[in-house]
Amino acid sequence: MNGQPRAHSTVFRRAAIFVVVLLVQFAIIEAGLRLYSKSEGSTTFQSLFIDDPAVGHRLRPGTQIRYNTDEFTTDIAVNAQGVRDDDPIGPKAPNERRILVLGDSLVLSVQVPFAQTFCENLERRLNAKGGATRWRVINGGVQGYGPVQDWLFFDKIGAAFQPDVVLIVAFVGNDAIEAYDTAAALKAGRAVETEQPAIGRLREVVRASVTLQSVRLRWSQLKARFSTGTPERPLTSYLANPPPEVAAGLELTRDAFGRIVTRATGIGAKTGIVLFPARFQTDDPDFGRLAEIVRQFGDTLERNAASDRFRQALAPLGVPMIDLQPALAAQPNRIELFFQRNVHLTLRGHDVVGGVLFDFLETSGLTAPGR
Amino acid sequence: MVFTSLDFVLFFAVVYAVYRVLPHRPQNWFLLAASYYFYGSWDWRFLSLLLGSTVVDFFVGRYLGRETAQGKRRAALVLSLIFNLGMLGFFKYFEFFEESLAALGARVGWHFDPLTLDVILPIGISFYTFMTISYVIDVYRREIQPTSHLLDFALFVAYFPHLVAGPILRASLLLPQIERPRTISALQMRSGAWLIAWGCFQKMFVADNLAPLVDSVFGASASPGGADILVAAWAFAFQIYGDFAGYSNIARGVSRLMGIELNVNFLFPYFVVSPQAFWRNWHISLSTWLRDYLYIPLGGNRGGVWKTNRNLIITMALGGLWHGAAWTFVLWGLYQGAVLVAARAISARSEAVGLRIRGGLSASRIALGVLMFQVTCFGWLIFRAESFGQLARFTRLLFTDLRPTMATINSLLIPMLMVVVPLLIVHVYQARRESEEAPLQLPLLPRYALYGAVFWCVLLWGSFEGAQFIYFQF
User: Fold this and answer.
1) Is there a contact between B179 and B241 (Cβ–Cβ < 8 Å)?
2) Active site includes B323?
3) What is residue A370's predicted lDDT score, i.e. its pLDDT?
4) Neighbouring-strand partners of residue A51
5) Are B221 and A333 in contact (CB under 8 A)?
């Protein structure tokens, strides 16, 4: 008679024991990852950022960390103004001209020492021309930014740096999708919470745990495959048949960048746009691997489709624009331009991009005197 | 639709839910439809080959069952073999042999333009073709009775857990399970779930994490040293094992949840001390197939040392070619044949002088096991090499430049050990009990700790990109 309740209680008891085992293992893994993790979920790396009511998040002013991974070890300093730099940004000297580079992790470049970033490389090249003008290139890149955050950062923080030139670096891989996801912030003119408070609290808990951040990453990968029928959402910008979010995201990108252009013009600065390719656009084996994944989902991955779509979408802004893909693809041993796992620029990649941007600034007239 | 993809999880969830509520015959109809959908999800066009193979061999089997004239039976068998091997030969080897012939012709000054047919290799063709061949031969030998139900035979050929990468099942094992109603016990559910979890660990945690390490050495732009090549060969040994054994375990687990038992395909092949034992434990369904349908018909070990060695070399060379249309696979097969021949000679000499390896964990046994693993790994180097040129270069470096650099240790050896050591820890326990299901017998807490560890390893460090299984290309 009471065999079934007893069987149920055994099941519950065993389930409870299993949950306890999982929790103990979770605690051990969390402790281990906090001590030894080399991922971007590590507390060391996360300490670089603070929440910002206007922008969402930004670099924490005055932070210094050593970021260590299997591929690189970098000392990262954030100055008092909250941009990656060893020196503060003070009042502008009479002979000083400034270039503010906006963008995401590709601009921030935590993978290489500050002096080796393409921003610093560009600054050295500009100053090597000689003359009375001293150039300062300000690295305004922040991990995780998209076009809307670029605009908010420039509007709330970057414009105060008194730039003479604003270079917007658009990562064609995911900027359209990120703009689509943050459309509400563009409309509101500030960062907005688009989720329920409970979800917000859950997000805070997840952010506080290295382990849960990894789980979240897995969940995102699975969810992305469910929702769009492709393995990763950034790849949608390259599909022969992209979902409607891509076209909508491109329009929002044009809107956000247009606001930057208008604001920059208002403070007497010129604006240029740099289209930054994903690694697989220059790396044949990587492209083959991703093309095969996309093929399994019944679509076609077109290597430069995202670059082409960005160029067309942003052309109406009427500002000088350069696509880095042809220059990077023309390099010998181009597989060495990006880290293999991290997919950001290597030292050599930064050197190449620094040179390309120098030529672009010179030929486009962006560095010429006057408005 | 690979086993470790979300698509398959969804597919199986639906299939299983329906399967559990159906009675026996509708279960078979439903499983057949699901299997054709599963196969068609790669390329619907190749369903025609699967159907053709099924229909031809079903009727040949029926004919062989009722015909008594030996000449007619032999003719029917030959026709079936021509059909099956012709199909396999055309789709898998046509371009390979044509290009090889053109290259050979060019060397003697005879030029011709090969036909450009762009033949696509139908997935799983090597597996299901061997299954239908074994069925026809078994019926011909009167070792089994032919089935009289086309549905059952079609399900035997197309049953989705084994369809695209084996195990290569015998009709004597699978057909009776298809023909009779199935029951599913709680123990089957538990052990099936463990096999799936363990298979996911082997594939997603072990194989998929080792793949980038191996690719970084074998890639076209790499310039590795000898130590890098050695570590990459070790890593590839565990990558291909994790990949294929993982697939086999998931297939067995999925099938067991449906009450159908598939045969064990791998049994700790790197814990052996002889090449013969390796082939008794590695891809067991293929090695026993080659033994029963090729090696023994060739004469086996019945004609003295020379003929036995010849038969071994032929069997292993063809076994190598089965793996793919490339001369490196043929060379790998020849190497395995040569190793078997050498091992037989050494074994005979050792017995003659009274040398014996002690059982258990003796020092000599461990040393022999390590040596055997290195011999196996050199075979994997041949198997993985992109070309003969790369193989020659890597072999030279292995013997002339074996100094490890810091990059060898930090970028290859340590990442490899972090993946392989957890696998080996569990394997040692499983091997001592000679079963991958041994963890089910652990006391509650260690068992749950193992389940939890497998869960976290797959969730946090497993690959979720749904990477293809290496053996799909065979």
Assistant:
1) no
2) yes
3) 67
4) A57
5) yes
- Pick from B462, B473, B397, B471: which is nearest to B5 by CA? B462
Euclidean distance between CA atoms A287 and A301, whole angstroms: 8
Residue that wins the pLDDT comparison between B366 and A2: B366
* B176 preceded by a cis bond (ω within 30 of 0): no
Q: Which residue has the tokens 């030929």?
A: A363
Q: Where are the alpha helices (DSSP H) in B201-303?
A: 208-218, 226-257, 275-281, 284-290
Please check the confidence at residue A118 and state whether its pLDDT lies above 70.
yes
Residue B412: list chain A partners with CB under 8 A: none
Chain A residues whose beta carbon lies within 8 Å of the beta carbon of residue B13:
none
pTM > 0.80: no
Average pLDDT score over residue span A152-169: 96
Q: Quick check: B264 contacting A, CB < 8 Å? A: no
Q: State the pLDDT confidence band at B461, using cuts at 50, 70 and 90.
A: confident
Residue B455 CB partners (closer than 8 Å, separation 6+): A22, B197
Q: Which residues, in sequence order, are CB contacts of B363 under 8 Å at separation 6+?
A: none
Q: What would the DSSP string read from start to end of B80-112?
A: HHHHHHHHHIIIIIHHHHHHHHHHHHHHTT---
CA angle centred on B315, ends B309 and B320, rounded to 5°? 125
Interface contact flag, B445 A231, Cβ < 8 Å: no
Q: What amino acid occupies position B75?
A: A
Beta carbons within 8 Å of A9's beta carbon, 6+ residues apart:
none
Collapsing DSSP to helix, strand or coil, B323 comes out as coil
* B136, B235 contact by CB (below 8 A): no
Distance to chain B for A34, nearest Cα, Å: 14
CB contact at 8 A, B137 and B146: no
Q: Which site among A10, A11, A23, A296 would you substitute to test the B interface, given the most B Cβ atoms closer than 10 Å to its Cβ?
A: A296
Reported as a single tens digit per residue, the pLDDT across B300-324 is: 888 888 999 999 999 999 999 888 8
Taking CA–CA distances from A290, the nearest residue in chain B reads B465
Most confident of A4-18, A228-242, A264-278, B117-131: A264-278
The set of residues, in sequence order, having a beta carbon less than 8 Å from that of B199 and lying 6+ positions away, is B3, B245, B246, B247, B248, B249, B250, B251, B252, B253
Classify burial at B149, counting beta carbons within 10 Å of its beta carbon; exposed 0-12, middle 13-18, buried 19 or more: middle
Judging contacts by C-beta atoms under 8 Å, the chain A residues touching residue B464 are: 218, 221-222
Residue given tokens 């979240």 in the structure block: A216
User: For strand A64-68 and strand A73-77, is the pairing parallel, antiparallel, or unpaired?
Assistant: antiparallel
User: Please, is A214 exposed, middle or buried when counting C-beta atoms within 10 Å of its C-beta (0-12, 13-18, 19+)?
Assistant: buried
Contact (CB<8Å) B444/A333: no
Distance CA B104, CA B49 (A): 31
Gap between the Cα atoms of A102 and A153, Å rounded: 8
| Partners of A68 in the β-ladder | A73
Tokens of B136: 């026809």
Task: Label residue B28 by pLDDT band (50, 70, 90).
Answer: very high
Closest CA to A84 of A68, A53, A60: A60
| 3-state helix vs strand vs coil in chain B, percent to 5 | 75, 0, 25
Percentage of chain B beyond pLDDT 70 is 94
On the question of pLDDT at A247 being above 70, the answer is yes
- pLDDT in the model for residue B223: 80
Cα–Cα nearest to B246, from B31, B425, B454, B14: B454
Q: How far apart are the first and last CA of chain A?
A: 90
> Residue B466 pLDDT more than 70?
no
Best probe of the A interface among B215, B456, B470, by most A CBs < 10 A, is B456
